[in-house]
């Protein structure tokens, strides 16, 4: 009886998962959107061994934590990070109603379409200033705006809504891990609420499994009800060494699977491989000029150290049958 | 076929849940550790209506979020909060190895057994100073120490290990909600990692569903590996208006069920009832001098406003068949 229940549970999870992988063949072979390669074999071997109760590599379900970066790992990040596109769009729309912004070089430049101002700041200063644009906005309005932006605005090169700029082989990998009772989290440098608005729809990842950068919120209760308001103060910039810190805050366990694409994911991948359980880390390399982009900037250190660290490098050109849904 | 699958899924969740409710009768009547009363009826009516697809009060599974305070709501909080007992124990054990602590009035007093020093600080100053005691401790050592403390140290009045000072009717309520596909979270003023060490064992609540007060951690990577170190800097004091803020950070949705026992839970209960979904809030009142404690201090405002706010007050004396496992 117990085995039957388990079988039916597994079956139902698998069926559930399949409905989200539109283009995947419904077959027994996992990762159907991946070309045959050593990295595909390594992923499948890893998953089969940690889920095999008779294997010395077996990992109990509650410890099967997988963490994925988002920008550049699960969806496109060029020419600009999509979360940054959203804030720029907001600044452009709001600029005329905020006279105080005229003194701000960054906001003024962006509102006037001068993207070169972005290069004048380091990441932390830039994120701090950009996040401050939504100061005093109601959290639920921000949520609505983010969902609408991702649904209605299109990437110019590919002419598809931003929320459809996802790499289908990576989404298939998420569903494969979920079908094997991994808890899958996204650990993004992007703003946490922004991604939550679409994470269930595009990845089948529940909102509470999104970990990201954030501002401090304020609780208010008045005649309008009880609600949250955004402030201009940074709570956390979820990049580099902060990723393992926020993994501990939100999850409390060391992951056994990590996927990243840049130096911002270096510590998360390193941390994932440092536990007592068997673990795996993959690094998505953008080398497909024809179907997406080819670039190395911002990922030099991770690519250079990948071999030494035991990280598997994914070639988007060679390992993915498709990049976006076809 | 679909209905059969659903039935078996529900059955298996129910069976799973029952194994955690040691003292509950395995029967069709939920909340067997609760006396018959209007509040018990209200809870069951609420759960049945939000899970009934034919009810206008139906709430989809992913929105069935329940939040529970911990100290005084799920386990005993007198004569001192258990998380505070833990830090005092650590200060006493460590005091002789830290000459710099001799200048600190709070640490000196506690090490010498003078509990009256606790009264000289407001909550925020007290928590800030107490949390700083574990500065520079490895996170994994802290985790081990917390688990050992909760397992091996006993409450003096009841002569049982701290981790067994849980209110069984409330644990039964958690399992009842889980069996009805609620995601149950704890939102505690206590330190987050401290509670995570036992949450799966004593409540069947996974570590990632614990939200609590926290210090900033530091990521280190060196010849010893990759690991996290505690600092003396507060990240968040999860009390009062901060509870809704951290609910948004960790979950991203408004709960539909909240349980608290003090003024520290006021905003969390208020926030829970402010959404568009049907929602319920309960306030555990300590009025059982014989079986536990009777007190009102720290909960005056919540008790006074309960009726007006629509919160259900639980009388531990009248509503609970037992307090601790018998």
The low-confidence parts of chain A are 1-27
Query: Strand order, biggest sheet of chain A?
Result: 6-5-4-1-7-8-9
Percent in helix of chain A: 25-40%
Q: Give the helix tally of chain A.
A: 12
Strand proportion of chain A: 15-25%
The most extensive contact between chains is: A-B, 41 and 41 residues
Shape of chain A: globular
| Whole-number mean pLDDT of chain A | 93
Instruction: Let me know the number of strands of chain A.
Output: 9
Q: Tell me the radius of gyration of chain A.
A: 20 Å
Describe the largest sheet of chain A. 7 strands, mixed
Summing up helix and strand content along with how strands pair, one would put the structural category of chain A as: alpha/beta
A few lines on this structure:
The structure is a homodimer of 326-residue chains. With 326 residues, chain A is of the alpha/beta class. Chain A contains twelve helices and nine strands.
Secondary structure blueprint with pairings:
The structure is a homodimer of 326-residue chains.
Chain A: H1 2-20, H2 38-50, E1 65-68, H3 82-94, H4 105-111, H5 123-131, H6 139-152, E2 154-155, E3 160-161, H7 168-179, E4 183-191, H8 192-203, E5 210-222, E6 225-236, H9 242-250, E7 257-260, H10 266-272, E8 280-285, H11 300-309, E9 312-315, H12 316-319
Parallel strand pairs in A: 1-4, 1-7, 4-5, 7-8, 8-9
Antiparallel strand pairs in A: 2-3, 5-6
Helix pairs in contact in A: 1-7, 6-8
């Amino acid at each position: 009886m117990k085995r039957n229940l388990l079988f039916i549970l597994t079956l139902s999870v698998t069926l559930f998962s399949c409905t989200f992988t539109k283009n995947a063949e419904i077959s027994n072979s996992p990762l159907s959107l991946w070309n045959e390669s050593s990295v595909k074999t390594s992923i499948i071997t890893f998953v089969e061994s940690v889920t095999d109760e008779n294997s010395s590599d077996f990992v109990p379900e509650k410890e099967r934590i997988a963490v994925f970066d988002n920008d550049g790992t699960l969806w496109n990040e060029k020419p600009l990070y999509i979360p940054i596109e959203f804030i720029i769009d907001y600044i452009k729309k709001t600029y005329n109603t905020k006279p105080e912004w005229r003194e701000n070089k960054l906001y003024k430049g962006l509102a006037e379409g001068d993207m070169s101002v972005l290069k004048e700041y380091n990441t932390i200063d830039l994120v701090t200033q950009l996040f401050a644009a939504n100061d005093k906005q109601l959290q639920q309005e921000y949520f609505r705006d983010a969902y609408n932006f991702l649904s209605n605005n299109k990437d110019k090169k590919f002419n598809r809504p931003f929320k459809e700029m996802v790499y289908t082989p990576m989404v298939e990998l998420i569903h494969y891990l979920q079908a094997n009772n991994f808890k899958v989290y996204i650990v993004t440098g992007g703003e946490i609420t922004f991604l939550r608005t679409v994470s269930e729809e595009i990845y089948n990842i529940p909102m509470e499994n999104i970990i990201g950068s954030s501002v401090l919120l304020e609780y208010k209760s008045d005649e309008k009800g009880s609600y949250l308001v955004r402030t201009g103060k940074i709570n956390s910039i979820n990049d580099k060494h902060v990723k393992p810190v926020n993994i501990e805050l939100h999850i409390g366990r060391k992951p056994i699977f990590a996927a990243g694409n840049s130096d911002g994911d270096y510590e998360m991948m390193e941390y994932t491989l440092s536990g007592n359980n068997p673990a795996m880390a993959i690094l998505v390399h953008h080398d497909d000029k024809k179907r997406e982009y080819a670039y190395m900037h911002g990922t030099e250190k991770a690519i250079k150290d990948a071999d030494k660290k035991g990280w598997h490098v994914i070639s988007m050109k060679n390992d993915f049958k498709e990049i976006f849904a076809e």
